[in-house]
Write a structure and sequence with these properties.
By secondary structure, the protein is mainly alpha-helical. It is built from 15 helices and ten strands. The strands form five sheets. A two-stranded antiparallel sheet has the order 1-7. Strands 2-3 form a two-stranded antiparallel ribbon. The longest helix is centred in the middle third of the chain and has 25 residues. It is globular, with a radius of gyration of 21 Å.
Length: 397
């Protein structure tokens, strides 16, 4: 247990460093920064660059919430009305909505591209063997596929980034001026003027499937992730790419493309070795820490407030306690919840509770399974489960 805590501390120190300095992580002109030619020398460099990929996505999980659950029947407006959030609830999203900015996805894709372009520089060694490097290649292909999947399933039109766009992007404006700007500060229109517009939607789907096929092969051949030559604790594999996460995503993509036999094959690779876990412990995957819920999730974004003051905006969107930083923008539709989870012993009933007579999406703000203990103010560190074991069973079905 002490060893696991030691590894977790190392991981979060790495993540904290990336998160707090992400504006300049790949800027090769910084006076005091690490130049690209001096990077990619050993396993520590590889892990740092890999966590930089996830660091582009983790702060934006509230957008995944809006693009997904907020548009479904189980979630609606809270008591505080935000016009832009309401657009998602009503499925009538305007071009001016700030939550449609997908720059963070392109930053992650750019970092994947940069990882793929530079991995060959690493000299094989005991701590960075060729098989070990396969895992990093597979990881970059998996995340790039995930980002493009969210783009194609969410937006009607978007660019296809096949070349590298770094943190500092140089482009020519419509007025003919050369502009250098942070990628995350760019509007969707700016990104479209830089990146290639796909000829058809099928081109994007083909790229996603190609990346997933590569990820599946590379992650299958790669040993368990290593950190400084030591085996990584099992729970940390849930915040990195894995063969099972890639298989489940491949199954979902196949369902979207109506390739049902492929979907069954991909999903069976997961369901054949995984289970849905113990119902009595279901709530712990949301209310606990990174070490909880490992039987339920295959890939998630986890946060470490205790180590690195890492938070997300889920508490802001779902809590009704203003002193905690809650704006109560989203709440569950209790009539739908009660109809779906109509068995008193159904463990999923805890996903929504009432506080001060108002229904809350408990899994993002709760600390227990009985609806009594909430997270501390502004300590929104609930894990966001992107790919779950249950998904594999769903796509197989």
């Amino acid at each position: 247990m002490m060893k696991n805590k030691f590894y977790i501390l190392i991981i979060w120190i790495l993540v904290a460093g990336i998160t707090t300095s992400c504006d300049s992580f790949f800027d090769i002109d910084l006076k005091n920064g690490v130049k690209e030619e001096d990077f990619y020398k050993n396993s520590n460099d590889l892990n740092a660059a890999a966590f930089g990929i996830y660091a582009a996505l983790a702060p934006q999980v509230h957008q995944f919430l809006l693009w997904g659950s907020a548009r479904a029947d189980m979630v609606t407006n809270g008591s505080e009305r935000d016009a832009f959030v309401t657009e998602f609830v009503n499925n009538q999203v305007s071009d001016l909505n700030p939550y449609t900015n997908y720059a963070f996805l392109y930053q992650a894709i750019a970092r994947c591209n940069q990882q793929l372009e530079n991995l060959y520089k690493v000299t094989p060694s005991v701590s960075a063997s060729r098989k070990y490097l396969d895992g990093f290649y597979g990881e970059a292909y998996f995340v790039r596929a995930l980002c493009n999947f969210w783009l194609v399933r969410t937006f009607r039109d978007f660019p296809l980034l096949e070349e590298d766009i770094s943190e500092q992007t140089k482009y020519v404006s419509s007025e003919g001026d050369t502009i250098v700007a942070r990628t995350l500060s760019l509007s969707n229109e700016d990104i479209r003027s830089i990146a290639l517009q796909p000829e058809s939607e099928q081109k994007v789907w083909s790229l996603i499937q190609s990346d997933l096929n590569r990820a599946l092969q590379l992650l299958r051949n790669s040993p368990q992730w290593l950190l400084d030559g030591y085996a990584q604790p099992a729970e940390l594999s849930k915040i990195r790419a894995s063969l099972k996460a890639a298989s489940t995503l491949a199954a979902e993509v196949a369902v979207w493309l109506q390739q049902y036999e492929k979907a069954i094959a991909y999903a069976t690779g997961v369901t054949g070795t995984e289970s849905l876990g113990n119902a009595d412990a279901w709530a712990s995957q949301f209310t606990g820490t990174i070490t909880n819920g490992t039987a339920y999730t295959l890939f998630s974004f986890a946060y470490a407030y205790d180590y690195a003051r890492e938070t997300n905006r889920l508490q802001e969107f779902t809590s009704n306690v203003e002193e905690d930083g809650g704006s109560y923008l989203l709440k569950p539709v209790m009539s739908v919840y009660n109809e779906i989870f109509n068995e008193t012993e159904d463990c999923r009933r805890i996903s929504a509770v009432r506080i001060n007579r108002q229904p809350l999406i408990w899994k993002y703000i709760g600390m227990d399974a009985v609806g009594e203990s909430m997270r501390e103010p502004y300590e929104s560190s609930a894990s966001f489960h992107m790919i779950k074991t249950a998904d594999a069973f769903l796509w197989q079905a």
